[in-house]
Write a sequence for this structure.
């Protein structure tokens, strides 16, 4: 077996199950889980109709690069959403459909990391935020690379400080994952930081993988978060060099089961990645492609989805519990479950101790993806827990 498989960490939910094992909650009421980020709003009717209308497409092998109408719908959406009218995205060369961003975030590292020519040379480095979406780490391990966890903590408003990553680390880096809006904090990376990142990535020839799967879940309709393509364009980098963005229908359109998203950006990188994907065999079936077209072409359901999230404040709460029950968020999680039958996710399961800091320690993640009534009930149980 591939020895790098042994480097993979258990998934956060496995650790959570172990933490909760053997506990019977005292509160004999409906269990509520704020631990899982799976969207639970209804999927859009427009997408469901497109799926039923296209089922006959199952009789055909789909193309890995996707049907042109899908790439056109994606390119049009990107151009509109990120104000790229002066340099519209080219659906032929600058877009590829993927089976959800998870698959793409993982396989992208496998395609782009160059293994050292000599076995005794140090491993290449993949930079990633800490805390993070665990796929980045597993992707780095299985690509034969070494993760470097750059902190995104309250000290920097949960944002990366790219200049604080040492020069010798940048020199060995081949790929950097960034997540904006970030999971778990929701922090949005600003233009100044992106400019710094572009300069460092150019200097060290590092590919930027920008995970923007939460870009459509925002609070203020008048101020959607800027994307990396948008900021690249504003900085005159409309060749998108060294930049690939990752987008998904899972959160935007409440379609996590569809497994559909896309990558867009640097055409030279995407050309090679397409070749990789052809061998990997992860083409989207035609009904999935047709459903995706309907979902990217419609903004009404996305606004409606945001309205539902807005009623609950935000998609994620990254809550500081350092002042509660001794400040250990695992104890907090266990007690909250035992007393109130309410599950949250300990921050440490989303982070790694690195250079003496564990940025997840003392935090819990609460995903407000359940129906509003359950979120209100959850808030009441937390109050009872804290005051009881
Ligand atoms: C930060 C982040 N990126 C990517 C994903 C993967 O989403 P999907 O594969 O459904 O597009 C998730 C899912 O929760 C996530 O939290």
């Amino acid at each position: 077996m591939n020895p790098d498989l042994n480097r993979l960490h258990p998934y956060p939910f496995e650790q959570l199950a172990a933490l909760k094992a053997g506990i019977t909650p005292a509160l004999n009421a409906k269990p509520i889980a704020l631990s899982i980020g799976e969207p639970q709003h209804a999927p859009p009717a427009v997408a469901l109709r497109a799926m039923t209308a296209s089922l006959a497409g199952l009789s055909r092998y789909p193309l890995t690069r996707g049907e042109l109408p899908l790439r056109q719908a994606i390119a049009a959406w990107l151009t509109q959403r990120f104000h790229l009218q002066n340099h519209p995205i080219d659906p032929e060369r600058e877009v590829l459909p993927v089976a959800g961003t998870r698959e793409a975030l993982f396989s992208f590292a496998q395609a782009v990391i160059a293994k050292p020519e000599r076995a005794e040379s140090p491993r290449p480095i993949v930079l990633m935020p800490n805390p993070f979406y665990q796929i980045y780490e597993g992707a780095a391990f299985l690509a034969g690379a070494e993760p470097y966890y750059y902190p995104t903590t309250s000290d920097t408003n949960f944002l990366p400080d790219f200049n604080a990553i040492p020069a010798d680390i940048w020199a060995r880096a081949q790929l950097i994952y960034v997540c904006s809006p970030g999971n778990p904090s929701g922090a949005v990376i600003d233009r100044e930081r992106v400019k710094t990142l572009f300069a460092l990535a150019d200097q060290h020839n590092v590919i930027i993988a920008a995970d923007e799967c939460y870009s459509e879940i925002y609070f203020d309709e008048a101020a959607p978060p800027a994307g990396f393509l948008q900021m690249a364009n504003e900085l005159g980098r409309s060749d998108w060099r060294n930049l690939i963005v990752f987008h998904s229908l899972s959160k935007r359109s409440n379609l996590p089961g569809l497994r559909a998203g896309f990558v867009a950006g640097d055409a030279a990188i995407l050309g090679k990645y397409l070749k990789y994907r052809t061998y990997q065999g992860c083409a989207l079936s035609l009904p999935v492609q047709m459903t995706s077209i309907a979902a990217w072409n419609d903004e009404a359901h996305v606004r409606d989805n945001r309205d539902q999230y807005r009623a609950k404040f935000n998609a994620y709460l990254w809550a500081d519990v350092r002042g509660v029950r001794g400040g250990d968020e695992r104890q907090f999680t266990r007690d909250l479950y035992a007393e109130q039958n309410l599950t949250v996710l300990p921050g440490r399961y989303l982070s790694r101790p690195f250079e003496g800091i564990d940025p997840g320690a003392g935090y819990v993640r609460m995903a407000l993806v359940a129906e509003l009534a359950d979120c209100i009930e959850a808030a009441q149980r937390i109050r009872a827990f804290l005051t009881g």
Notes: The CA atoms of residues 229 and 240 lie 7 Å apart. The first helix runs from residue 12 to 20.
